[in-house]
Amino acid sequence: MTGRDFGYHLGLPRALSGLPLSPLVASYGELVAAQHAAGLRHLGEALIPAGAGGLGVLDGLYVPSGGRGRRRVDVPFLEDLARAPTPGAGLAQLLAEVHRRDPQALRRVVLYQLIGLLQDRPVKERPHAAAQLGLRADEVAGLVAAARLRPRLDKRERQAAESLAGARDRHRLHRVRTLLERLPTGTDDPALLSLRTELAARFAVVDGALLAARQAEEARDSEAASAEYLRALREVADDRRALRGLVRVGRPRRGERAAMAAELGLDHVRLTWDESDADDGWRLVCLHRDEQGAPTVREVSAHDDALVLGSTVRYAALPLSGGLVDGPPLVSHQVLLAPEVGELTLTDSPERIEGTWKRPPGAADVTVERTGPDGTVEQLGARRDGFTAKGLPAGTHTLRVVCHYRTPGGAPVTSPGVRATRTVHPWPAPVRTLTAQAEGDAVRFAWTGAGNADVRLVEWPGEVPAPGTELDTRDLPAGLGWPERDGALCPPPGRYPRVAAVAVLGERALAGPAVGVEVLRPVTGLDARRLPGGEAEVTVDWPDGTGHLRVSWDTGERSVTAHAYRRGGLRLSVGPGAVRIRAAAVPQAPGAVVVAPDAAEVLLPPDTAVGYQLVRPPRRLLGRGRPLLRVTLSAPDGGEHHEAPEFVCVARSGTLRPRNAADGTTLVRIPGTDLLRLGTVERELPATPCPAPYTLRGFLLGEHAASVRLEEPSPATLVVR
């Protein structure tokens, strides 16, 4: 009876006769994920309504049906569950697929899970726990006994048990054998017994194929050897002996183009090959030796970044069909995993070469060897990311940059090295000093140094390079292009250029010193007129871009801003005497060489005045005489006058004053020479120049009228009645 409780004597065809130690379902992981997503404790709960019981497992997998009947779980039952609009429909579909492949699999999985759940509980609690798991009441005792008799699996053993079927389906039988060795021995799980028998038979086939392959290799029949190795790999996909033999037979000869290219980068190997000849993708492997020197194989991707630096490896791509190797591999040449520096850049400077690179992450050191144009070889000191070699003669130099590594065992390994050449060119001698001297509206430049080079004077558009900066002639701005006069240059006015001297030799140049040159704008339109009280009003055409003007005269000087001039004009206290007034722009750039045009100037004559008055005759016994017009030229003491304007007196009837010299009748005209010679001139007015009353007014005419002030009497004194 005891055996019957565990299903030893079942009436079902191919029914299990032992307790399952492994579910032996390749998709077990997918089933468990769906089970957990559905919130189920075991997959049997997917077969019965929630909260219901009556699940039978000991003599087959049954669910309750009708009043007291039961129904065996088969494909139609599972398909009905899959079509039902319930949350577990997707899981039922997965279970149906498992049942189609193996009718015993689903019962084996449920038994495996139920026994595991009971073994996780204390022995005394197991009967109650079994009843809560939804089992038929008459099977609770049998399942509790099964949990007591079947070995309890720890975490490592459970992982092995649940991984067996997946490894077997992928033909990784070495992996299957390893997993079997982790499981408890002495069990009577018939599925595992059958699996062990299968392993023995298939490994026998592999051993025979390997023996035949080695014999074919000894006979130099590579085609036959490849076929035997392929036969072994199709039987046991993870047999490394067969894999290494297949790669060995298919490897390219020295100097022959490899079917797989393996390009070593700074921290990875990139694999490329013709991917068109595989039905089901490719299996990529790396063949190498471990720290103890034993040959080993690892699976890789087309971008292999798990490099063991310092080791020598070979890569292969094996075409797959149905998940199994289906043809000769595409094999690379051997690759020394000692990456070279990346992005090596060499630049030459005066008597030196500078190199930069990107250092591989695992390099212990980087060394540089230089071979000069005369064949001399020297080792250069290197930084982490570059080097500088100084004092080099002109000519072509060859540099070899080598990376150094250590294998996991500590042995030193060097990369083949990267070679590059660079020519050290003759460079110009630098310009030492640069001076500039203003000569009127021109500037003369002088310099020292640059003995073997041409000197180009340039104006940099932006920031001026520091002296000694190495330049390419193609990057230099054009020369100044200023007009030349007697060796001096005439800069355009109103600018402040920074002029630099550059030493040029062929295609190379060195920046030199710079000087600032401030070119002032000329002042135009300077004029002055006298005001009463010894003042003068000065006017100019203010030059564009000029902030200050310096205005000077015989006894003083004044700085005027553009804002102040435009707001209130310019008045100077110059006194009554003749005075020469000058105006020039004021430099604004400190330290610059100033190129200034001649100052504008104007001569303001002495404060000369012409006054006139009407002198009425005294009363006489026989009446009055005719009135006189007295005109006087006055000037400051000691002032000399060489020119004077003509004085004209005009009369107009009425009491309104004449507006100008043509607005009335001319009564008196006195030349300026008479005023200069006599000082005071009196003229008698005509008897009746126009109907009385009439009004007189004097005017100054001629080119000197603006430089002489006219002093007019009160208009009331100029009316003749």
Please give a quick description of this structure:
Helix content is 22%, strand content 34%. It contains 14 helices and 43 strands.
Task: Return the structural class.
Answer: alpha+beta
Report the end-to-end length measured between terminal Cα atoms.
171 Å
Number of strands: 43
In percent terms, what proportion of residues is strand? 25-35%
Rg is 58 Å
Q: What's the helix count?
A: 14
Main beta-sheet strand count, sense and barrel state: 6 strands, antiparallel
Helix content: 10-25%
Low-confidence stretches: 1-16
The residue-averaged pLDDT reads 89
Q: What characteristic shape results from the CA principal axes?
A: elongated
Q: Overview of this structure, please?
A:
- The chain has 721 residues and is of the alpha+beta class.
- Helices cover 22% and strands 34% of the residues.
- Helix 6 (126-132) packs across helix 7 (140-149) and helix 11 (222-235) runs antiparallel to helix 12 (240-250).
- The termini are far apart.
- Residues 1-16 have low confidence and may be disordered.
Main traits of this protein?
721 residues, alpha+beta, 6-stranded antiparallel beta sheet, 5-stranded antiparallel beta sheet, 43 strands, elongated, disordered N terminus
Q: What's the helix and strand layout?
A:
Layout: H1 2-5, H2 28-37, E1 62-65, E2 69-72, H3 75-83, H4 89-101, H5 105-119, H6 126-132, H7 140-149, H8 155-169, H9 173-182, H10 190-218, H11 222-235, H12 240-250, E3 260-264, E4 269-273, E5 282-289, E6 295-299, E7 303-304, E8 312-321, E9 324-325, E10 330-331, E11 335-336, E12 342-349, E13 352-358, E14 365-371, E15 377-380, E16 386-390, E17 395-406, E18 412-414, E19 418-424, E20 431-439, E21 442-449, E22 454-459, E23 470-472, E24 484-485, E25 488-489, E26 498-505, E27 508-519, E28 524-531, E29 535-541, E30 548-553, E31 556-561, H13 562-568, E32 570-573, E33 579-585, E34 593-595, E35 600-604, E36 608-615, E37 628-634, E38 646-653, E39 665-670, H14 672-678, E40 680-684, E41 694-701, E42 708-711, E43 719-720
Parallel strand pairs: 27-34, 36-42
Antiparallel strand pairs: 1-2, 3-4, 4-7, 5-6, 5-8, 8-9, 8-10, 8-11, 12-13, 13-16, 14-15, 14-17, 17-18, 17-19, 20-21, 22-26, 23-27, 24-25, 26-27, 28-29, 29-32, 30-31, 30-33, 33-35, 36-37, 37-40, 38-39, 38-41, 41-43
Helix pairs in contact: 3-4, 5-7, 6-7, 8-9, 9-10, 10-11, 10-12, 11-12
